[in-house]
């Protein structure tokens, strides 16, 4: 069974790769805008808070191998939080 839906790259993007620390051949652009942003400290990523704004510049979780599975493991929590707005 193919699992191509878990990975995509956009090498023509002017920001590619937008984070360092992941081999270019493994860099996944699928979650360019991380759906875990809203989870704040519960996202589990490498971020810093700057003047109350979450800065994810140093986070590679969505872009590295296993990122799809990691993001999907947190989606139930995202959905729960989203239904509380």
Largest sheet descriptor: 2 strands, antiparallel
- Structural class determined from secondary elements: alpha+beta
Number of strands: 2
Q: What string gives the helices and strands in order? A: EEH
Total helix count?
Answer: 1
Strand order of the largest sheet: 1-2
Count of spatially separate domains: 1
Q: What general form does the structure show?
A: globular
Spans of at least 5 consecutive residues whose pLDDT stays below 50 are none
Tell me roughly what share of residues is in helical segments. 10-25%
Supply Rg. Answer: 14 Å
Measure the end-to-end span. 38 Å
Mean pLDDT across every amino acid position: 93
Taken as a percent bin, the fraction of beta residues is: 5-15%
Protein name: Zn-finger protein
Domain Cysteine-rich small: 4-80
Organism: Fusibacter tunisiensis
């Amino acid at each position: 069974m193919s699992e191509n839906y878990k990975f995509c790259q956009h090498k023509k993007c002017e920001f590619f790769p937008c984070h360092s620390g992941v081999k270019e051949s493994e860099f996944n652009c699928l979650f360019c805008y991380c759906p875990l942003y809203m989870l704040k400290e519960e996202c589990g990523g490498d971020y810093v808070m700057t003047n109350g704004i979450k800065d994810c510049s140093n986070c590679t979780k969505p872009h590295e191998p296993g990122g799809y599975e990691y993001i999907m493991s947190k989606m139930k929590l995202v959905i729960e939080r989203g239904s509380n707005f």
